[in-house]
Amino acid sequence: MAFVSGISVGTKAFLGTAKATRTPTGVAAGRRSTVMMAMSKAVPFLEQPKNCVGLPASAEFDPLGFSDVIPIKFLQEAEIKHCRICMLAAVGFLVQEIFTFGGTYFPKMAPVEAHDYYMKTGGMSQILMFIAGFEFLSCAAVYQTMLGKREPGYFGFDPLGLGKDRAAYEKFQVNEIKNGRLAMIGVGGFIHQYWATNQTVLDQLTNFHALSNPEAGVKSALDALVTLRHAF
Question: Which pTM does this prediction carry?
Answer without folding.
Answer: 0.75
